[in-house]
Amino acid sequence: MSCAAVDLGASSGRVILGRVGGGELTTTEVARFDNKPIRVPRGADDDRLHWDILRLYADVLAGLRRASELGPLDGIGIDSWAVDYGLLDAGGELLGNPIHYRDARTDGVLDQVRAELGARRIYATTGIQFMQINTLIQLVAARDSPALASARRLLLIPDLLCYWLTGEFGAEVTNASTTQLLDVGQRRWARELIRDAGIDEALLPRLREPGETIGVLAGSARDQLGGHATPVVAVGSHDTASAIVAVPATGTRFGYISCGTWSLVGLELAAPVLSEASRAANFTNELGVDGTTRYLRNVMGLWLLQESLRTWQSRGQQPEVVELLSGAAEAAPFRSLIDPDDPRFLAPGDMPARIAEVCRETGQPVPADRYQLVRCILESLALAYRRTLRTACELADREVDVLHIVGGGSRNELLCRWTADACGIPVVAGPVEATALGNLLVQARAVGAAGVGDLTAMRALVAATQDVHEYRPGGDIPAWDAAARRWSAIFER
Ligand code: LRH
Predict the structure, then answer these.
(1) Any bridge partners for residue 294, and if so which?
(2) Which one-letter DSSP state was computed for residue 99?
(3) Would you call the peptide bond into 37 cis, given omega within 30 degrees of 0 as the criterion?
């Protein structure tokens, strides 16, 4: 089968053509385009961070056209990051550019929502980690906005693009689960909670499972893509859901990190963990493909490094990532540590300055150069992965023998090696393209590709066809143990 995966990531969007089935799984990137948020003023001293959604739709169409020129497509599937949405009016027209979750309008709203609705109730129903980026928090922040008042429908970003391609409304369930508006046990909208949050429940469309066919290309999208009635399939439209489909695990005793801008660290379970201890540890239960639960925590991830790079570049400096990493490898170990999940790291901005501020506040040396800063970020991430994985295992009463790192971060040898050392178990790194592969596998199965069966079979196909690299724990393990204790003493007081 020949399928096109559209994957919209934190800095770029891509269209990837996949050949799937009969033991084959190959990918070719046919288009890559910017997906950068745009800051737009809304008055003298305020602004909003927006998606550039129409530009993106045009780029998606152009990419799909290129893919279809290489041969007929059997399917199209779209994934992107979680929580963000567009609002439509009664005529089905988009009401303004969607707002990016890193916009500051949700600052302080998380505590308000917890106080209004009760943290225990929200967690017992939705099972979702409390983060100010969640759709529930975004909607409460926008409760009095004119756009929400005139909205008749809310579509998460992949669902919005699929609507433009097919004319069909819906909410794919893996992404819907990240909104904190879904009853995770029942796999349906948490209507009472939504009402009590002051949100119009009629905004939320029918849920669909990954693997359902949404519709076929229609209207102007079909005209622009050669007139074919290509099926558009609901994949795990949450990028993390797609990535975890493509973890090349051979057994069940594995942990994973979907490692990119965010690091999603956790386990795959058959059912959610909604205990009080799980709420206190702020773990999330996102819904996965084929009825699975992704039990994990969001760790701030390579965003810290990406924003540091952006800051340096904005000052006219052009540090090479390879050089930064080799310099970090030579820098003194464990000189300063940060909590990657410090909320002040969420918004775009001067990350080196924010990290320096944290070091000063906690009585640690401020990184004196870029290498020390990169070392501080990567060691702090490896320690966060260790803590998160161990806590997930305790809370879910599970053990793991191997940690899979998939996504762009699996290319970062230093991070993978330090993660293996910090966690004390082997790390299997790769595939880099896990999200696109998971997207392709689910749609290929839906349109009848040969030999693409359940998750185990899909993962076996990934393991047989994609490059992975194994890192065994081998560094100074007692030093990692001591650093983990030091971290707890500083940040868990
Ligand atoms: C990763 C991701 C993650 C979400 C965040 C908003 O790209 O989808 O799973 O929590 O972005």
Answers:
(1) 268, 286
(2) B
(3) no
Residues 4 and 30: their CA atoms lie apart, in Å, by 9
Q: Which amino acid is at 335?
A: R
ipTM of the complex: 0.98
CB of 82 closer than 6 A to ligand 1?
A: yes
**Span from the CA of 227 to the centroid of ligand 1 (angstroms):** 34
Which ligand 1 atom is at minimum distance from the Cα of 298?
10
Q: Is 299 left (phi over 0), alpha (psi -120 to 50) or beta?
A: beta
Residues 422 and 257: their CA atoms lie apart, in Å, by 14
Identified catalytic residue from 74, 84, 239, 341? 239
Active site residue 401: no
Judge if the beta carbon of residue 8 lies within 6 A of ligand 1: no
Does residue 262's CB lie within 6 angstroms of at least one atom of ligand 1? yes
- For the chain, what's the residue count? 493
CA distance 438 to 239: 9
- The H or E element spanning position 354 is helix 351-361
Instruction: Outline where 10-153 has alpha helix (H).
Output: 53-69, 109-117, 119-126, 135-141, 146-150
Backbone angles phi, psi at 490, to 5 degrees: -80, -45
Strand partners, 15: 6, 31
On the CB side of 296, CA atoms within 13 Å amount to: 27
Regarding pTM above 0.80, the answer is yes
Mutate to test the pocket of ligand 1, among 239, 282, 284, 406 (most ligand atoms within 8 A of CB): 239
**83 close to ligand 1 (CB < 6 Angstrom):** yes
192-206 residues labelled b (16+ CB within 10 A) or e (exposed): ebbeebebeeebbbe
Task: Give the phi and the psi of residue 386 in degrees, each rounded to 5.
Answer: -60, -50
Q: Which atom of ligand 1 is nearest to the CA of 239?
A: 8
In tens digits, what is the pLDDT along the chain, a chain of 493 residues? 999 999 999 989 999 999 999 999 999 999 999 999 999 998 878 899 999 999 999 999 999 999 999 999 999 999 999 999 999 999 999 999 999 999 999 999 999 999 999 999 999 999 999 999 999 999 999 999 999 999 999 999 999 999 999 999 999 999 999 999 999 999 999 999 999 999 999 999 999 999 999 999 999 999 999 999 999 999 999 999 999 999 999 999 999 999 999 999 999 999 999 999 999 999 999 999 999 999 999 999 999 999 999 999 999 998 899 999 999 999 999 999 999 999 999 999 999 999 999 999 999 999 999 999 999 999 999 999 999 999 999 999 999 999 999 999 999 999 999 999 999 999 999 999 999 999 999 999 999 998 899 999 999 999 999 999 999 999 899 999 999 999 999 999 7
Which residues is 152 bridged to in the sheet? none
239 lines ligand 1 (CB under 6 A): yes
Domains, the chain, in order of start with CATH, read: 2-237 (3.30.420.40), 238-430+468-493 (3.30.420.40)
